[in-house]
Automatic annotation (TrEMBL), chains A, B:
Keywords: Cytoplasm, DNA-binding, Transcription, Transcription regulation. This is Cu(I)-responsive transcriptional regulator. The keyword Transcription regulation applies. Residues 1-68 form the HTH merR-type domain. The lineage of its organism: Bacteria, Pseudomonadati, Pseudomonadota, Alphaproteobacteria, Rhodobacterales. One of its GO terms (cellular component) is cytoplasm.
Length: 128, 128
DNA sequence: CCTTGACCTTCCAGTAACTGGAGGCCCTAT
DNA sequence: ATAGGGCCTCCAGTTACTGGAAGGTCAAGG
């Protein structure tokens, strides 16, 4: 299967697939003309990575997850720990964003948003 | 005022302050020995930027905000629009993270996390 | 006077995860 | 033969810093 087809069917951009090869996630065969030729295993891995990335796992976490996935003797506890750590990261990010959102939302509300120059948002940023 | 002092009093790392100079936010004077010498205006700007950054505005947004701040004839509507756009970005990020969090949280809950290899998290990632 | 340590300087490289573009080969259809 | 689309590699750029090397400066202590 050519890279274009894989991109279309997996939803992962061509460039990204090449990048994933470059960082060692996949090692597709090459045809005589140098074109990459993906097999089911490659497709499967790409789908795995795509799904993990969509859940916010970093590339390195994906690498770890993939290794666990391919290790038949893994303990699910190891996977769970990884996922829980990531969950904690996500929660921290959400909390940080919410705090920004609350402050910013207050500021936006307090700003008239008309053609006069006086602006509580700028005043806040300026520490006044 | 030396860069170290500015860093301490503003909470912005020395490296970051130099970077902010490099990208044109500030233009501190230099002493005879080449050391940067920050005045109140620089301090004020740095505080402004630091606050805006802590609210998640990008560097380019900070630049725009700073320009509005220094433009006495600005309309508060322009500031408000910028802030509202940013608020929308934040909300989108929060929504995306929440969706990740929910999915991931379900997966974590469904995983026994013991020494057996069977793992719903990996199964999900593998599309099963 | 010399050394030591804490400052400060510049410049270069690296981070995360792609993304865009240039230059060029390959394949198929007209 | 040529036009188009798909494929290839390699290089550079993105965001906002951050780390480190190599070296100048300054104040205090011996």
């Amino acid at each position: 299967m050519n890279i274009g087809q894989v991109a279309k069917s997996s939803g992962i951009p061509v460039k990204t697939i090449r990048y994933y090869e470059e960082i060692g996630f996949i090692r597709p065969d090459r045809d005589a003309n140098g074109y990459r030729n993906f097999d089911d295993r490659d497709l499967h891995k790409l789908a795995f990575i795509g799904r993990a990335r969509s859940l916010g796992f970093t590339i390195e976490e994906c690498r770890a997850l993939l290794a666990l996935y391919e290790d038949q003797s893994r303990a699910s506890a190891d996977v769970k720990r990884l996922a829980m750590d990531h969950l904690k990261d996500i929660d921290a990010k959400i909390a940080a964003l919410k705090s920004m959102r609350d402050t910013l939302s207050d500021l936006v509300t307090s700003c008239a948003g008309d053609d006069r120059p006086d602006c509580p948002i700028l005043n806040d940023l300026a520490g006044r």
